[in-house]
Design brief:
Number of domains of chain A: 1
Number of helices of chain A: 9
Largest sheet of chain B: none
Distance between the termini of chain A: 18 Å
Radius of gyration of chain A: 21 Å
Largest sheet of chain A: none
Distance between the termini of chain B: 24 Å
Oligomer: heterodimer
Strand content of chain A: under 5%
Number of strands of chain A: 0
Strand content of chain B: under 5%
Number of domains of chain B: 1
Structural class of chain A: mainly alpha
Largest interface: A-B, 19 and 20 residues
Number of helices of chain B: 10
Order of helices and strands of chain B: HHHHHHHHHH
Radius of gyration of chain B: 18 Å
Chain lengths: 254, 223
């Protein structure tokens, strides 16, 4: 496992894997979107608006999956102080915020014709909004603390504290009487969705997961390269300066 | 160790009393919050009485938050935070004691002032008792959660706004159960006990968890 955590090895691995991953993402996304719009039947009550679900549900899953990825990286930061975990953590925050945003917006678009309102303050919607706010707070924290190592540890602590929200989101529909419908795919006793709708949903979910993994690998790679560039700039500045500059920060990075 | 912690508690109380920005300023801010709400929504006493608990809770939340940004920052600036960090006493306990002192200096006055300000909002005596009890039980949770944010932003020059962004989402559950307990006190049907117990649970939980997170943040940021 430690071999893969070596940043240089990670970079070569990403270069090798990414084309395949991107191709698979594109193919699955195309198939999923085709199924969404042409294969999946319209709902007998909701009509064509049900197709929003094929975007909404995968992005909701991914918003939580991304947070758990970030929390795992946060453990890597705090326990092993690994720079790759720092980069993975930083790369995941904007992605998670984007997925959560898509989830909120599509839910709102679906809610207007179905519930008759853009927004209700029920437990599921509110807890997802809190997740979005936590993502934004994390991004703000990353931007405010200049030194990457410190920023990573501060963000890791906040991320781990925020994990409390994930089970609240998951079980909010069971604990409280919400307008949002309860779980219908991953539940005891099997899914309650018709197979003709379940399959497109699962394909879209897989496509979204692959999209997240590809984007996350790319963003992590960019972060590593950004830090290397920063370090090289510092070294060059130091050489030009006659070796007097303070290289403490530069050495700590990848 | 107990003596060191007691000394720290007294020191923080003394600092809060002698330096501005302590308890009295929080209460003044609280009063101003209560004053501007009727200007914003109109002086309808029925409406004010109904949303009174919510106004008092939001006021207490913001007043607590505003006072918290100096919790570790002042110690960081004059170097005493480094001494505290290197002391034999566990940093988690130090954070706990600092939170307790801070709550005594700011949170407690807020809770005690709440019934007086509640009268201005035309609240019933039962509702006043409910909101005071819920604030007494709930404001420690706000202090502990805020301490986490204060620790994360202690070394930043302008950490106040960032701290609010970090802490407010985490404070949502406390606000929900605090307001529902306060509102249930004047309601014949709703039970006061259930939300109040959950509120107490949140306070106890944050008292246990937050000092560890805050201490971890102080350690990692101080390196």
């Amino acid at each position: 496992m430690w071999k893969y955590a070596n940043p240089t090895f990670f970079l070569t691995l990403v270069d090798r894997v990414l084309p395949w991953l991107a191709a698979a993402t594109a193919a699955l996304m195309a198939a999923g979107l085709y199924m969404t719009f042409f294969v999946a039947p319209a709902d007998y009550q909701q009509g064509d608006a049900v197709r929003i679900m094929y975007i909404h549900v995968p992005s909701a899953w991914l918003s939580m999956f991304c947070y758990m990825t970030m929390a795992a990286s946060a453990l890597g930061t705090l326990v092993w102080r690994h720079p790759l975990a720092d980069a993975a953590q930083k790369a995941a925050a904007p992605l998670g915020a984007a997925f959560t945003f898509v989830c909120l917006v599509t839910g709102s678009l679906w809610g207007k014709p179905m519930w008759g309102t853009w927004w209700v303050w029920d437990a599921r919607l509110t807890s997802v909004l809190v997740l979005f706010l936590i993502y934004l707070g994390l991004i703000a924290l990353w931007q405010t603390i200049e030194e990457p190592g410190k920023a990573a540890r501060a963000a890791a602590i906040l991320t781990l504290v925020g994990v409390v929200n994930i089970p609240i989101i998951k079980f909010s529909v069971d604990w409280w009487n919400t307008l949002h419908q309860p779980a219908s795919v991953f539940r005891a006793g099997g899914p309650t969705i018709a197979p003709s709708m379940l399959w497109p949903l699962l394909v879209m979910a897989l496509a979204f997961t692959l999209l997240f993994i590809s984007l996350h690998l790319m963003a992590t790679r960019n972060e590593i390269l950004r830090r290397r560039l920063h370090r090289l700039t510092m070294l060059a500045a130091n050489a030009a300066d006659g070796g007097q500059a303070d290289l403490r920060f530069a050495d700590m990075e990848v | 160790m107990t003596r060191a912690l007691a000394a720290l508690f007294l020191r923080d109380l003394r600092l809060a009393r002698r330096i501005g920005g302590g308890g009295s300023m929080g209460v003044v801010f609280f009063l101003i919050m209560v004053t501007i709400v009727p200007f914003a929504i109109g002086p309808d006493l029925n409406l004010l009485g109904r949303i009174g608990p919510a106004i008092l809770w939001i006021g207490a939340l913001l007043a607590t938050l505003l006072g918290l940004d100096r919790l570790f920052q002042a110690d960081h600036e004059d170097g005493s935070l480094d001494l505290l960090r290197m002391a034999d006493t566990p940093l988690e306990l130090i954070v706990l004691v600092k939170c307790a002192a801070h709550w005594t200096a700011t949170g407690l006055p807020l809770a005690l002032a709440a019934p007086v300000f509640g009268v201005m909002l035309a609240m019933e005596p039962q509702a006043l008792a409910g909101v005071t009890l819920s604030l007494l039980a709930g404001t420690p949770a706000l202090t502990f959660l805020g301490a986490m944010g204060a620790a994360l932003t202690a070394t930043l020059r302008r950490g106040g706004l960032l701290m609010a962004i970090l802490v407010l989402p985490m404070a949502v559950p406390v606000l929900i159960f605090g307001v529902s307990a306060a509102a249930a006190a004047s309601d014949a049907v709703a039970s006061f006990g259930t939300p109040f117990m959950i509120l107490c649970a949140l306070t106890l939980l944050s008292a246990v968890g937050a000092p560890f997170a805050a201490a971890a943040a102080l350690r990692s940021l101080g390196e």
